[in-house]
Specification:
The chain is mainly α. The chain contains 5 helices and no strands. The mean pLDDT is about 90.
Length: about 120
């Protein structure tokens, strides 16, 4: 069993909440007329798949930015999951700073997606 410092556990918690919030944002972007964001969000992996599909339907002038933002979010979600799993490998990095760095990137992705969604709704 891995013994983590309290500050590391707190940082892991922040990262987990940021990743979950990013997934909820992806679900909101990906939800369409047949599903609500909550229904999409409730299925593991569905938020990213739905957001990818939605990004492909964005008008061509904005599509590249949308696709890039969604793919960036997918990458950062994968990084956060890999960081959690790596904690159980011998010698793995488990300092709070690493998880906080990942959290910052997850929140940047969330902010970009929010901005794109707002400009799309306007």
């Amino acid at each position: 069993m891995v013994k983590l410092a309290g500050e590391t556990l707190t940082a892991v918690g922040r990262m987990t909440v940021a990743a979950t919030e990013l997934e909820h944002t992806l679900a909101a972007i990906g939800a369409g007329p047949d599903a609500t964001a909550e229904a999409v969000f409730a299925q593991p992996g569905a938020a990213l798949r739905a957001a990818r599909a939605a990004a492909g339907r964005v008008p061509p002038a904005d599509r590249q930015e949308y696709v890039g933002a969604v793919e960036g979010a997918g990458t950062q979600l994968a990084v956060s999951q890999a960081a959690l799993r790596a904690m159980w490998r011998p010698g793995a990095r488990t300092d709070a700073a690493m998880f906080d760095e990942i959290t910052v990137l997850l929140l940047r992705c969330r902010d970009v997606l929010h901005r794109l969604a707002r400009s799309d709704a306007a």
